[in-house]
Amino acid sequence: MNAPSLTAQQIEQFRQQGFLILSGAGSDLLTRFRYLAEQEHRQPTEPWELEAKLGYPGAPESTEQPGGDTVRRLLQATSRQSEWQQWATSKAVGQWLRSVMNTDAVHLNPNHHNCLMTKSPQYSSDTGWHQDIRYWHFQKPELVSVWFALGEESNHNGGLVVIPGSHQAEFSEHQFDDQRFFLEVDANREWLDRAQVLHLNAGDILLFDARLLHRASRNHTDQTKLSLVFTYRAADNAPLPETRSARLPELAVQ
């Protein structure tokens, strides 16, 4: 995939807001990737994350209930489809990431995200405000995820809602609950009032900082939402030994 370099304005936008939408940047691969994703979704195989196991609001209460086998994420996407891995470690993706991370070398960490994200119409759930970095273990919290929208994403089908600039904030522990969800309380209202719904079209690519506060509702439509998501670090930001972040070996990005 040939993709233009990011402009200085785009790089500055990412650094100020914590995210950047590259409209249509994945259009040439969309049909093929959507086909592969639908195949994976129709005949899911482990490793996976089930809605019922996570237990967020709206999810089935157990795997024994109707919809209890609903998949939330099909994990290890780079091992499922070689074409996905080729794209996720490609020169084009690497070029974007090196620009926004201001680094010479980037690694894909397969232990976080690295998934086909699915949001089903009937049994999906609501995810509260959080930062992805909350359960990750690296020398620094400065990671970036790349999100490939395989269909339209909006507030109607569980698309992302973000708080621009929140990746730069130094929050205190009392602003989060014991699961590291950002509390919807008066003390956080100044941030919550800045929330912005992201509308992605099929083939759009979203870059976002792992410290960016974001949430997503359940899917209120009759079509499953599918996205590919991968997470990256700079060469000088290694995962901490003997943590989940270091479990599987990383992939070099071109």
Automatic annotation (TrEMBL):
One Pfam family recorded for the sequence: PhyH
Top-rank taxon, per record: Bacteria
Protein name from the UniProt record: Phytanoyl-CoA dioxygenase
Keyword terms, alphabetized: Dioxygenase, Oxidoreductase
Gene Ontology MF terms: 2-oxoglutarate-dependent dioxygenase activity; iron ion binding
Named cofactor requirement(s): Fe(2+)
Family annotation (SUPFAM superfamilies): Clavaminate synthase-like (SSF51197)
